[in-house]
Amino acid sequence: MSKPRLQALYQEKIRAQLQKELAIKNIMEVPRVIKVVLNIGVKDAVSNSKALTDAVEALTVIAGQKPVRCEARKSIAGFKLREGMPIGTMVTLRGARMYEFLDALISLALPKVRDFQGVSRTCDRQGNYNLGIKEWTIFPEIVDFDISKKIYGMNISIHTSAKRDAQAVALLEKFGMPFKAA
Q1: Of 49 and 3, which is predicted with more confidence?
Q2: Strands (E), 94-142
């Protein structure tokens, strides 16, 4: 089986370019993507258990692997939420699936967003990048829009081995992430 396009590009070109640009002596210190975490919070799951099932189905199609259900850690009376109730779903991608997802996100899904101006350059001060998407229908894997009656937002968290935010942004720029003009 061949490597995903983005993984081969990283290993053959991007890693050497980053090492030179960031003045890193050891090739093993060059920033790389460790994992990608996709998360959907389903507030309707409190009153409708079918809503969470729809979100699990959609995330399975997008990620290519089965997500886990997330449960509430504590009770909140104002939201009619009890500890242990299922409230969301998440999946962690690593290896080939991670690179395939990143490639689809950068080259197919993000350009499909209406009035797209680019994504923010800010990271979380630890070299990780978070991206919120308002609806999951932008992914090419979602062919059947009837998966769910309601469309939920999604959080995409890209974890890198970068020690500084500037290194993480440089890595994602090399991958082709469409950042806003500075």
Answers
A1: 3
A2: 129-133
